[in-house]
Amino acid sequence: MSATRAGLLSDAIRLLAEAGVGDPARDARLLARWASGLEAAAFAARLDEPPGVDEAARFATGLGKRIARQPMSQIMGSREFWGRRFEVGPDVLDPRPETETLIAAALAGPAPRRVLDLGLGSGCILLTLLAEWPCASGLGVERSAGALAVARRNAEALGVAGRADLQPGDWFDAVRGRFELVVSNPPYIPEQEVEALEPEVRGWEPFAALSGGADGLAAYRAIAAGLEGALAPGGRAILEIGAGQEDDVAAIFAERGFALAAAHRDLDERPRALEFRRASEHPGRF
Ligand code: GLN
C-alpha cells in the first residue's frame, strides 16, 4: 500500500526539523497542500489518501528545496503582501510584513498624483500603492535586471502596468520630474552582519537588496542627496529603516534640509517607517 498524505507529512516534518527549519510542521503542511493544489478544508479531509504521482513529485522537490533552506515564498513562487499576491524569486527581496507599516503610513496621507519608489525589488510597495490609489501613477527604479523583470510581471498581474513606469537605474539616475510621494525600502543591513542572518536570507535573497554598506546607511545618504530634486513642494518621503537606525537616518536627512514629520511603528512597536518633509515646510518637530 502506498503512503498516505498524512504519512508523507509526518516524514517531512521530521526531515525539516533535522534541517533546522524554524517551524517544520507549518512548512511541511503548507508544502503538502501547495503540492496537492487543494484548498485547506479539502486537503484536511483527504489526508488518509495517497497523493497522485505528480503531487508526490512536487512535494518531494519542494521538500528538498526547503531542506536546503530556500524560503517558502521562493519555493511556492509567491508571497502575499497587503492582501495581494506577488511573484517572488531569488532575484528579489521577499516582501516583509514590516514593510506594510510603510504602506499604512502612505495611505494615511493624501493620495499623490505621482509616486516614486527607489529600489523596486518585487515592486510590492509601488504596485500596492497604485492598486490602492486608482488615480495615481508611479515611477519605479531598480538596478537589478532580474528584479525589474519580476516587478514588471507583478505590475501586469495586478492590472496596474499602465500606470507604472518601471525603469532600470541606480537611485535617481532614471528619475525625471517631481513626485508628491517618494517611498523606499532600501538595503539597510550593515554589510558584515549579512553573513550572520538566517540561512534563508543570507543564502537565498539578493545580497544587494540586503546590504547597506559598512554602516548600513549608504542608501539613505544616496537618497537624501537626491531627494531635493525629486520631491514636489509639500510632498512626503517615507522610508523603511532597520532596528535602531531612527536617529542616524533622521540626522542624514536633516543635513539635507528634511525634517522628520513622523516615525511610524511596526507591530513590535519599533520605529519602522520614517516620514520626512522639507524642514522649511515642517518646522514643528525641531
Ligand atoms: N521595495 C522592495 C521591498 O520592499 C525591495 C526592497 C529591497 O530590495 N531592499 O520589498
From TrEMBL:
Protein name (Swiss-Prot/TrEMBL): Release factor glutamine methyltransferase
Alphabetical list of InterPro entries matching this protein: DNA_methylase_N6_adenine_CS, HemK-like, N5-glutamine_MTase, PrmC_N, RF_methyltr_PrmC, SAM-dependent_MTases_sf, Small_mtfrase_dom
Stretches that traverse the bilayer: none
High-level lineage: Bacteria, Pseudomonadati, Pseudomonadota, Alphaproteobacteria, Rhodobacterales
Catalytic activity as recorded in UniProt: L-glutaminyl-[peptide chain release factor] + S-adenosyl-L-methionine = N(5)-methyl-L-glutaminyl-[peptide chain release factor] + S-adenosyl-L-homocysteine + H(+)
Function summary: Methylates the class 1 translation termination release factors RF1/PrfA and RF2/PrfB on the glutamine residue of the universally conserved GGQ motif.
Enzyme nomenclature, EC number: 2.1.1.297
Domain Release factor glutamine methyltransferase N-terminal: 8-77
GO molecular function: nucleic acid binding; peptide chain release factor N(5)-glutamine methyltransferase activity
Source organism of this protein record: Albimonas pacifica
Annotated residues for binding of substrate: 185-188
Pfam families documented for this protein: MTS, PrmC_N
Any single GO BP term: methylation
PANTHER family given in the database record: HEMK METHYLTRANSFERASE, MTRF1L RELEASE FACTOR GLUTAMINE METHYLTRANSFERASE
EC category: transferase
